[in-house]
């Protein structure tokens, strides 16, 4: 996937405005650089003046050591997949009350959302494919209904989302449809794969010009305007 400097800058500026990290914040980078979400962990602290702490190989492999690193370095920002968060919570009783948690990369179930919300300072469920530059939507898990069925939330920054049927018509509120993403995060396409790029990156017919990405994810628009992930359209 060819992601541009402008795409990445949009992501970083959006999270800088949303999280407002300062020199007192410490972000623990736990993601391999082969995974796109590592870009936020590495570059956001460098952009905002927060402190970047790199997890060691041993800490990557051992949730107990990683949990201790969170306490030792007094981490205040941590991004991880639900699987890693589950391992951290099971590893030990280290205090997470000062940690703002970003959860993404996999579907988040209610049980983990509740346990994490009870222990962390705040929890945000984030969603996005690589093709729209890491994260495109976010949902603070700050209400009971959001803990029951964690949504993937509202669009971030200059991102637009459309829930459409097979004819690219908007689906009424509460209905199921495929999620299309437009805006500043949409990548150029697949390097050397013009056919696949044309299939997944399609013209945006809603008056904004440009293109939108067909995610293949089935969602429902919630009453508050946020999005609930339901599954894949191709499985």
From TrEMBL:
Signal sequence region: none
Ranges where the AMP-dependent synthetase/ligase domain occurs: 1-190
Claim: rRNA processing is one of the keywords in the record: no
Keyword line: Phosphopantetheine, Phosphoprotein
Domain of life: Bacteria
A Pfam family the protein falls into: AMP-binding
Alphabetized PANTHER family for the sequence: BETA-ALANINE-ACTIVATING ENZYME, CARRIER DOMAIN-CONTAINING PROTEIN
Protein's name according to its UniProt entry: Non-ribosomal peptide synthetase
